[in-house]
Amino acid sequence: MKKTLNALTAFGFLALAKAAMAVTSGGTVDLPFVVPTLTTVVGFLIKFLFFFAGLAALLYLLLGAFSWVTSSGDKENVKKAQDKIQAAVVGLVILVVVLVIIATLEQVILKGSFCIGLTCDLGANLPTLLD
């Protein structure tokens, strides 16, 4: 039964994919979405890494707070929890400082002539591969 269900599911996905793509008379495929360029992907990855770093620091901060609450007054556990919280706050501060420095470099100092991908498009700085 499970194999039949898997086969039907795979067949359904193939049918949907075939219906979504339309081949033109020139042999090219018209997709129902826009394929992202290299600049879009790199810009997304840079922004995602900063987001992930901030999320990790916030989770570490919450882990330190939870450790402090559950330390039940033990001085050694309280000290470990305080160290976790301090490390998370320092990480968040460093992350914000790096973001401010990059934004200042991109927009104020270099006036958009150099871009890392946070506040401007990378289009002018990455080579085009498929043009």
UniProtKB/TrEMBL annotation:
It comes from the Bacteria. Residues 1-22 form the signal peptide. Keywords: Membrane, Signal, Transmembrane, Transmembrane helix. The chain crosses the membrane at residues 38-66, 87-105. This is Uncharacterized protein.
